[in-house]
Amino acid sequence: MDKNLSQLLKWSIEAQTSGTGNDNTTTTNNSSNSDGQASAPAPAPAPAPAPRSDLTPEILASILGGPSDAELMQQSMAVITSADPEVSLEHKLVAFDNFEQLIESLDNANNMANLALWTPLLQQLSHEESEMRKYAAWCVGTAVQNNEKSQERLLAAGGLPSLVKAVLSDDEAVDVRRKAVYALSSATRNYQPAMDVVTAELEKGGHIKEGTGKVDATNMDAVDVVMDGLKELVKQKASA
User: Fold this and answer.
1) Of the candidates 202, 197, 200, 199, the residue with the CA atom closest to the CA atom of residue 233
2) Does some domain include residue 8?
3) Could you point out which of 4, 63, 134, 221 has its C-alpha 20 to 30 Å from the C-alpha of 84?
4) Residue 190 sits in a domain of what CATH number?
5) Is residue 42 in a domain?
6) Which residues lie closer than 8 Å to 191 by C-beta, 6 or more apart?
7) Model-level pTM?
8) Would 96 be classed as within a structural domain?
9) pLDDT of 106-118, one tens digit each?
């Protein structure tokens, strides 16, 4: 059964159950006791607790026919990649912001592959507008953070060399380089295949000496050494 339908059924049953057991009306006992005095009326029963409402926005959207997260992700990417001149840069950045918030959910991030969203996202790393490149790197970092499945997809899609290139390029905007470091840090932690690719690319770019050796992706101190070096590189550029 669909998760939303299951939760809706559960909510309906709870609502109906909480409404029962309170139908008995209280009658006043006017009979006399043995002393000829009228008995006090029976106390009214405590009101039943209000029914729980576990209807989430997702369930309501399912009931009312609103767009799912998957549809919202696709709509956002359609705006981001639109060639329509009436779609301004501001519109694209708003769509990027919405997309980034959606993929903070692990399920949504993992669904990017099913929706074929990795390729158009990575293409934005070479967009002519630096703000678009920044958001692209930001979204990559969000999608792969603590998420091995998405780390695998990023590696398979060939996005790591572009991120390394962005970090090492003196011509790249500082904000873009910072987000690229964030993306690389998220992509390599606890995922050795990505760390191996990144260190190889850093050697090619002259940031790491060849033959330095393998960096253990499960050793956070070792990963920090690499990422702190990249942060320092960007910092020097920013202060130059």
Assistant:
1) 202
2) no
3) 134
4) 1.25.10.10
5) no
6) 148, 151, 152, 155, 217
7) 0.74
8) yes
9) 999 999 999 999 9
Taking the CA atoms of residue 128, residue 138, residue 96 and residue 101 in that order, the dihedral angle to the nearest 10 degrees is 180
Q: Where are the alpha helices (DSSP H) in the chain?
A: 3-19, 57-64, 69-80, 89-102, 106-114, 118-123, 130-144, 148-156, 160-168, 174-188, 192-204, 220-239
CA 31/CA 49 separation, integer angstroms: 32
Q: Quick one: tokens of 164?
A: 């390394």
Three-state SS string across 89-152, please? HHHHHHHHHHHHHHCCCHHHHHHHHHCCCHHHHHHHHHCCCHHHHHHHHHHHHHHHCCCHHHHH
Q: How far is Cα 179 from Cα 166, in angstroms, rounded to an integer?
A: 9
**Is residue 18 included in any domain, yes or no?**
no
- State the residue range of the domain holding 161: 67-238
Look at the chain and report how many structural domains it folds into. 1
Structure tokens belonging to residue 93: 């950045």
